[in-house]
Amino acid sequence: MKRLLLFAMVCASMSFVSAQKKFDKVSKVTSSEIRWWGYKVVKTEETSHSGTVKLKSGKFNFDHTVLVDGEFVIDMRSMMAGDVSDEDQIKLTNDLKSSNFFEVKKFPIAKFHLTKIIPLANSEYNSTVYGDLTLKGVRKTISFPANVYVTQFTTSIESAKFSLNRRDFKVFYQSSLKDYFIKNEMDIQFKVSTEMLDNENRVPKKKK
């Protein structure tokens, strides 16, 4: 019995070490831009709004030279309306951050876990990106077209403008007729690029 227990402990230790060494290279996002668009039911320039939100952190994991996945954290508290000014900008931004929409005090971050990239041929964009988006505590698998470039451990992704259904993530007025005048689809577009890390020290790797 003791030998069996010892054997199990050794196997567990080996599995843990193996899991730790799963990713032998990490590429950290050093440049990013995320834009959003929201629309009224009657979609015109006057009834649309746009703005930005910032990436808090992001990285791509590699097994040797093969891109395995990516992990991204979005700072929802940084959300800003950019198409209005002065008092209207403050009012709209605060409304978006409130419990009416993204409830950033309770859900200060959103996460995107990139799971796979499928090459596309004869298209404006060279790939389809798949992953799991967690927003307001709700996780959904999404996909979108993008131009993806991977050179050894340096990665660049520029997405198309793609749509999310805000109701899938519980982003709506809880008890107001106002919600019926807002389209369920909200659009997102982003760019990210990376810099390889020295995996031992977790700092940007110096260029030779």
Would you mind describing this structure in some detail?
With 208 residues, this protein is mainly beta. 15% of the residues lie in helices and 51% in strands. It contains 2 helices and 10 strands, in the order αβββαβββββββ. The chain has helices spanning 2-20, 86-97, and strands spanning 25-39, 48-63, 66-81, 109-119, 127-135, 138-151, 154-159, 162-165, 185-198, 203-204. An 8-stranded antiparallel β-barrel has the order 1-2-3-4-5-6-7-9. A hairpin with a 2-residue loop joins β6 and β7 (154-159). The termini are far apart. Mean pLDDT is 83; it is low at 2-21.
Give the secondary structure arrangement, pairings included:
Elements: H1 2-20, E1 25-39, E2 48-63, E3 66-81, H2 86-97, E4 109-119, E5 127-135, E6 138-151, E7 154-159, E8 162-165, E9 185-198, E10 203-204
Antiparallel strand pairs: 1-2, 1-9, 2-3, 3-4, 4-5, 5-6, 6-7, 7-9, 8-9, 9-10
